[in-house]
């Protein structure tokens, strides 16, 4: 009789035990399920293990649990998953074959964990993955070819990690990648060839890193970049032909807060579609001859020690009234042909409006910038509305 009792107890354990973490066809305890198990929500419910969910489940939300790691085969019975959320799960490492079997997965969110490393083969089977979020971790290195299974990857978020360099082959296989975000890392160099596999990038964010020189060789294979952010990198100069390879496409350039002192004369050669250019909070005195203003609608120049000798000739040709650029700042404008929309100009190069302007008279234009002999010729003045003051 004792043997029978133990046998029955064992049977009960076999039936009920797995239900604690969920069994296929059942909603895991502590979780909320919707749409016949298609959406399984286990947000902040104290889980320490990854629950088993049905093959019919399309979305699994495991945010804010103390999971620590992802065992190999953890999602073996979840082959129908399309969206997997594992933010704030205290994950420390992504092991090999962590997502094996998830061949339909499109969205993978691993943001704000403590991930320090990603093992080779970690992303095996993720051939349909399109959106990968790894921002807010401690990743310092990306193994060569780590993204190679992701032939459909479109957006990759790597902001706020500890990456120090990019090497050739890092993005091998991810040829469809269009948005690459690497802001807030510790990048000191992009090795030549490191971006060759993602030549179709449209958005590249590299701001808040430690790049001291513009990575012209690494960038030379990029063809269709529309938005590039480099702000808050300690660069002093931008070289000739810096943006030429994607000059026909680039519309937004962020080169602010860099301590930037100089553009080479040919830095903007080939740039023909620029609409928004941010140069504020640098050490610039002049603009390069290669910078054309014909397509610009948003130009930010504030907090630079501009030389106010009217050598900013390109601005002058845009009917700026012949005065140095501090004439009008932070104002909505309606200048020649309506090209300009917003303009923010230097607080370090202010020009005072004359108290009593008169046509044909010489006007004094006091300016706080350095190395400024006062102009000695009559100037045309424009108010913020673009109306000439006579």
UniProtKB/TrEMBL annotation:
Q: Which UniProt keywords apply?
A: Disulfide bond, Extracellular matrix, Glycoprotein, Leucine-rich repeat, Repeat, Secreted, Signal
The protein in question is named LRRNT domain-containing protein
UniProt signal peptide: 1-22
Point out the coiled-coil segments of this chain: none
Q: Which InterPro entries match?
A: Leu-rich_rpt, Leu-rich_rpt_typical-subtyp, LRR_dom_sf, LRRNT
The domain of life is Eukaryota
- Which residues belong to any copy of the LRRNT domain? 26-59
Organism for this UniProt entry = Etheostoma spectabile (orangethroat darter)
Spell out the Pfam families in the cross-references.
Answer: LRR_1, LRR_8, LRRNT
Give the similarity note.
Answer: Belongs to the small leucine-rich proteoglycan (SLRP) family. SLRP class IV subfamily.
Where does the protein end up?
Answer: Secreted, Extracellular space, Extracellular matrix
């Amino acid at each position: 009789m004792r043997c029978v009792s133990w046998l029955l107890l064992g049977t009960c354990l076999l039936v009920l035990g797995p239900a604690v973490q969920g069994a296929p066809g059942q909603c895991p305890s502590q979780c909320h399920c919707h749409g016949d198990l298609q959406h399984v929500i286990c947000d902040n419910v104290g889980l320490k293990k990854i629950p088993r969910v049905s093959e019919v489940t399309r979305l699994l939300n495991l945010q804010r649990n103390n999971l620590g790691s992802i065992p190999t085969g953890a999602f073996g019975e979840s082959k129908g998953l399309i969206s997997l959320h594992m933010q704030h799960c205290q994950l420390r490492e992504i092991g090999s074959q962590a997502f094996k079997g998830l061949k339909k997965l499109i969205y993978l969110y691993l943001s704000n964990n403590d991930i320090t490393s990603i093992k080779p083969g970690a992303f095996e089977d993720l051939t349909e993955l399109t959106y990968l979020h790894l921002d807010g971790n401690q990743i310092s290195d990306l193994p060569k070819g780590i993204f190679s299974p992701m032939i459909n990857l479109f957006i990759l978020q790597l902001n706020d990690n500890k990456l120090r360099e990019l090497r050739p082959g890092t993005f091998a296989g991810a040829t469809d990648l269009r948005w690459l975000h690497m802001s807030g890392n510790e990048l000191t160099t992009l090795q030549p060839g490191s971006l060759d596999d993602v030549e179709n990038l449209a958005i590249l964010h590299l701001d808040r890193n430690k790049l001291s020189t513009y990575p012209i060789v690494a960038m030379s294979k990029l063809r269709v970049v529309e938005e590039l952010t480099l702000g808050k990198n300690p660069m002093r100069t931008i070289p000739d032909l810096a943006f030429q390879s994607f000059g026909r496409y680039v519309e937004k350039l962020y080169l602010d807060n860099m301590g930037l002192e100089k553009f080479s004369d040919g830095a903007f050669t080939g740039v023909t579609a620029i609409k928004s250019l941010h140069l504020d909070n640098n050490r610039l005195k002049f603009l390069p001859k290669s910078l054309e203003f014909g397509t610009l609608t948003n130009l930010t120049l504030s907090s630079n020690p501009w030389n106010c000798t009217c050598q900013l000739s390109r601005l002058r040709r845009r009917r700026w009234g012949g005065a140095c650029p501090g004439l009008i700042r932070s104002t909505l404008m309606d200048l020649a042909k309506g090209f300009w929309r917003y303009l923010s100009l230097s607080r370090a190069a202010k020009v005072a409006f004359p108290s009593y302007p008169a046509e044909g008279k010489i006007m004094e234009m006091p300016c706080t910038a350095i190395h400024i002999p006062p102009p000695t010729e009559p100037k045309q003045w424009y108010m913020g509305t673009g109306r000439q003051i006579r």
